[in-house]
């Protein structure tokens, strides 16, 4: 008699499990498919960490391609001085301004000063061939035997 009770208990347990799994009807699936996907809000700003030498103008040139867009960046950052930014300050760049780049650059956006070739008192800056000849005479290879 005991085996019949066990079989009955197993049958009741199995039916309970099947009933609790819950099946979705076709209409429930259609409702789920017809709902629009959730909207993801885009951030309003890109946060730019200032590197020494940068101004809002150079930052604007990097993000928008136009240095004149610095005014829009300055409007978004009322507590910062546009031309006296300090290293590690955070500048909020409006996403609407960032038409060229959308990410912080790996290097500074500050303008690079052109390097002037070294001049010696005997060589004139007007004649670059004299400098080339002098460099060739004093040239030592960096690698290889001496």
List keywords for this structure.
single chain; 146 residues; mainly alpha; two-stranded antiparallel ribbon
Describe this structure in words.
The protein is mainly alpha-helical and 146 residues long. It has a domain at 48-94: Membrane-bound Lytic Murein Transglycosylase D, Chain A, CATH 3.10.350. 38% of the residues lie in helices and 7% in strands. It has helices at residues 2-21, 26-34, 56-64, 70-76, 128-137; strands at residues 45-49, 90-94. Strands 1-2 form a two-stranded antiparallel sheet. The radius of gyration is 35 Å and the shape is elongated. The N and C termini lie far apart (103 Å).
| CATH hierarchy class name of one domain | Alpha Beta
Percent strand equals 5-15%
| CATH topology (level 3) name of one domain | Membrane-bound Lytic Murein Transglycosylase D, Chain A
**Residue share in helix:** 25-40%
Low-confidence spans: none
Sheet with the most strands: spatial strand order: 1-2
Radius of gyration of CA atoms, rounded to a whole number: 35 Å
Helix count, per DSSP? 5
DSSP strand tally: 2
Main beta-sheet annotation: 2 strands, antiparallel
What global shape is seen?
elongated
Give the H and E element order: HHEHHEH
* Secondary structural class: mainly alpha
Distance between the termini: 103 Å
If classified by CATH, what would the architecture of one domain be?
Answer: Roll
**Mean pLDDT across every amino acid position:** 76
